[in-house]
Design brief:
Elements (H helix, E strand, L loop, with lengths): L22 H12 L14 H8 L8 H21 L9 H18 L8 H33 L12 H20 L3 H27 L10 H27 L5 H7 L3 H11 L9 H6 L14 H6 L1
Helix pairs in contact: 3-4, 4-9, 5-8, 6-7
Protein name: DNA topoisomerase
Enzyme class: isomerase
Family: Belongs to the type IB topoisomerase family.
Length: 314
C-alpha cells in the first residue's frame, strides 16, 4: 500500500502478479487514469477522501483511510502472534525464543508496510564480527569437552591453562590515560593530531587486550574439577544458543526496519497483552522510550484482543 518517492515499479513482475496479484490490472488502470491528462492534473480526479472513507466503511464500521494502515498492521501482528502461540511446542520455548517469534511477526508487519532500509557497511561489519565470535565460542566449547575427557582419563598434562593477560589490560589503560593527557595539553595542530593518533592507538590496544581475554575466557589458571568443566560447558551452550538467535535476528532483519511499525502502526496493547500471557518481560519488546510513550497501554489484560471495534476507536 506504499511506494518510495520517485520509485520505479515493474507491475509486470511476478511479485505483483503471483497469488492473485493485480499488477497488470493496476498498470492498465494507471494508463487509463492518465490518458489525455497534463502532468499537472491529478491522477485520481474522480475520487476524494470522503468517497474513499465511505467505501472503506463498507468493510468495517469506522474504518477510514487514516486508520487503514494502522488497522492492517495491528491485525497482521495479532494474527501472526496467535499463529505461533497455537503451535504445539510453544509452551516449551524460553522467553528469548519467544522474543524471536515476536520479532518474526513484527517483520511480517514491516514487510507489509514496506518499511525497508538499505544494509549499511556498519551492519555488515557487525554481522561479520558476531559470526566470528560465534565460531570462537563453538571452538571453545569443543576445547572444554576435550578438557573433560582429559579429566575423565586422568590425563591432566594436556589441559590448556589460562595465561595472565593483566599486563595487556594495564598497558592499554596506561596508554589511554597518556593519550587523554596529551589531548588536554595539546595546543598546536601538530600536537592535536599526535594526541588523536595516540588515542586511536590506545583504543586499538584495549581492543586487542579484550580480544585476548575473550579467546581464553573458557579456561582456568589452575586445573579445574569435572563439575567446573561441566558447568562451563552448560554456560557456553547457552551463550552459543543466544548468539545464534541474535545473529539470525540481525541477519533476517538487516533490510527491514522493525521500529517504524512498532512505533507508529502496531497497537501497543497487542504487544503488552502478548508479553503478559507469555511471561516475557516487556523490556524485551519495548525500549524505555517506548515504554514511556505507551504507558497508557501497560494496564491491558493478557486476554485483550485487537478487533474491528478497537480499530474504530483508533
Amino acid at each position: 500500500d506504499s511506494m518510495l518517492y520517485k520509485q520505479t515499479i515493474d507491475f509486470g513482475a511476478a511479485i505483483y502478479n503471483e497469488n492473485n496479484g493485480m499488477g497488470k490490472q493496476v498498470f492498465d488502470n494507471f494508463k487509463a487514469f492518465c490518458k489525455k491528462k497534463k502532468s499537472s492534473e491529478e491522477i485520481f480526479d474522480k475520487i476524494n477522501p470522503t468517497m474513499l472513507n465511505a467505501h472503506l466503511k463498507k468493510f468495517m464500521d469506522g474504518l477510514t483511510a487514516k486508520v487503514f494502515r494502522t488497522y492492517n498492521a495491528s491485525k497482521t501482528l495479532q494474527e501472526e502472534l496467535r499463529k505461533t502461540e497455537a503451535t504445539g511446542s510453544w509452551d516449551r520455548l524460553t522467553a528469548a525464543e519467544k522474543v524471536v517469534e515476536y520479532n518474526n511477526a513484527n517483520r511480517e508487519v514491516a514487510i507489509l508496510c514496506n518499511h525497508q532500509r538499505s544494509v549499511s557497511k556498519a551492519q555488515e561489519t557487525q554481522l561479520e564480527a558476531l559470526g566470528a565470535k560465534l565460531a570462537t565460542l563453538k571452538k571453545q566449547k569443543k576445547t572444554l569437552k576435550g578438557i573433560l575427557k582429559c579429566l575423565n582419563n586422568g590425563n591432566t598434562e594436556k589441559i590448556p591453562l589460562k595465561k595472565s593477560g593483566k599486563h595487556l589490560v594495564e598497558a592499554a589503560a596506561d596508554a589511554i590515560a597518556k593519550a587523554k593527557k596529551m589531548k588536554e595539553k595539546a595546543k598546536t595542530n601538530a600536537e592535536k593530531i599526535a594526541a588523536t593518533e595516540a588515542d586511536e592507538a590506545a583504543k586499538q590496544q584495549r581492543r586487542e587486550a579484550n580480544d585476548a581475554k575473550f579467546h581464553q575466557a573458557h579456561l582456568w589458571e589452575r586445573i579445574p574439577t569435572k563439575d567446573q568443566v561441566i558447568k562451563r560447558i552448560q554456560t557456553w551452550t547457552a551463550k552459543i544458543t543466544k548468539m545464534e538467535m541474535d545473529l539470525k535476528h540481525k541477519d533476517d532483519n538487516k533490510e527491514v526496519s522493525l521500529g517504524t511499525s512498532k512505533i507508529n502502526y502496531m497497537d501497543p496493547r497487542i504487544s503488552v497483552a502478548w508479553c503478559k500471557r507469555n511471561e516475557v518481560p516487556i523490556e524485551k519488546i519495548f525500549s524505555k522510550t517506548l515504554r514511556d510513550k505507551f504507558n497508557w497501554a501497560m494496564a491491558v489484560s493478557p486476554t485483550w484482543e485487537f478487533n474491528a471495534k478497537v480499530g474504530k476507536q483508533k
